Amino acid sequence: MNHEIEHIIEIDNVSFRYENRNVLENINLSIPRGAFLGLVGPNGSGKSTLLKCILGILKPKEGTIHLFGTDIRKFKDWNKIGYVSQKANSFNSGFPATVFEVVSMGLVSKVGLFRFLNKSHKQKVYKALQDVGMAEFMNRNIGELSGGQQQRVFIARALVSNPELLILDEPTVGVDAGNVENFYTMLAELNKNLNLTLLLVTHDIGTITDKVTHVACLNKYLHFHGETETFQQLEERDLALVYGHHIHVLNHNHDHSHGGIQ
């Protein structure tokens, strides 16, 4: 089969439980190539568990997951996937490395540990920093940066090996509230400019609805999965069923104040 895989992630009838507690029930979710999917849901809804299943850290009790058309149990091309965790609020600010050095760590699998970077490697690091708007900080110590700047550097580290899929778990933890919207705008530009498929786990429903192309609402079950336009037409009472309480979604197309779940 030589044609390009249409769906980068395909999740079919996946369920997962910790001992006797069901966390995911019968999840069916596909992410097309080039999509920017926002995965939303309340705390304890199973978002992190689903991510761990996609990353091969946890094995579903039932169902199958295919990555790039291959059953995850046989999948070997993990270099196609970049992952950025909630690092900004727990990073050791005394870590003695420059921004350039941190991003170059993303090339270890290709270059090898303790090997010198050649000119093309250095160009890749610089390009990744440009893509996230951090090139001017490349000689700064990573510990001198704000939480939001650090998180951009971690994204650059994931980008430097040219992944086709980037997974981000609550990346705005530790990002100043005033910079959250700019941060999501940067992710939307990566999606468009690099033709990069993004899977973003977030609580910021109101902030992302004019940035992402698709939305998935998870709370043990997948309550909604579709294009952003369809999600924006949902009634607030429908969303309340997902969250278990009333929520109000603020859309930012015409309003630059910071909203979200209320």
Task: Characterize the structure shown.
- By secondary structure, this protein is α/β, with parallel strands linked by helices.
- It has a single domain (7-243), classed as P-loop containing nucleotide triphosphate hydrolases (Rossmann fold), CATH 3.40.50.
- Helices cover 29% and strands 24% of the residues.
- The protein has 9 helices and 10 strands.
- The chain has helices spanning 47-54, 99-104, 108-111, 119-131, 147-159, 180-193, 205-208, 228-232, 236-243; strands at residues 7-18, 21-32, 36-40, 62-67, 70-71, 81-84, 165-169, 197-201, 214-219, 221-227.
- The strands form 2 sheets. The chain has a 6-stranded mixed β-sheet, with helices on both faces. Strands 2-1-4-5 form a 4-stranded antiparallel β-sheet, covered by helices on one side.
- Residues 252-262 have low confidence and may be disordered.
Record keyword descriptors for this entry.
Rossmann fold; six-stranded mixed beta sheet; 10 strands; 24% strand
Summarize this entry quickly.
This protein is 29% helix and 24% strand. It has 262 residues and is α/β, with parallel strands linked by helices.
